[in-house]
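Title: Prediction job returns without error message
Component: structure pipeline
Severity: low
Priority: P3
Assignee: unassigned

Description:
Job completed but the reporter wants confirmation the result is attached to the right record. Sequence as submitted:
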Amino acid sequence: MRLPNRREILRVFPTRMRANDDTEAVGRVGRTDSRDAFFVRQDRMLDPLLAWGIGSVIAGTGLAVTTDGFRRGIGLQSALWGLISAGFALGWQCTARRNAIAARSGELGALAIQAEARRFEHALALKTGLGAVYVAAGTVLAIRGKSDGARGSGVGVIIQGGALLAFDFGATLWAVFRPETRFET
């Protein structure tokens, strides 16, 4: 099954918010009339993570084939973390696109949209905390590693963990202060 791209999502469904049973229970939308606004922004916000993941896989693979143990360690970490980052980004983007379509068609009400937004916010906050742990663990490995490969792996973890920490922290701030799902009661 092929997922629709952004243009198809925006073209197929009307953008005005439709009345729904739980809209009345939550209240009216504060700053936007679009039911899918959170999901569309979520999809777009994940583009840099996907680009970082793909770039890390390409650069990491290039470094991983070198004979230098330090560079190989950095490359292996970059390639592996890049695959994971790209996987997360693609998974969340597919979910965001599906939810945008469901929100526009009226299948997702205001309470369900808020619940999805809160779930995403909590996942980002957890990933931000893990990013700090990754950087700390990479620092320990880079300093105390017994071989060049281990020290290179530590530096690779610092690079990837630091980039993910910065991305996740910024995305968490966006998610916490998002206007799309803040409803007046």
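Comment from assignee: result matches the submitted record. The chain is about 75% helix and 0% strand.
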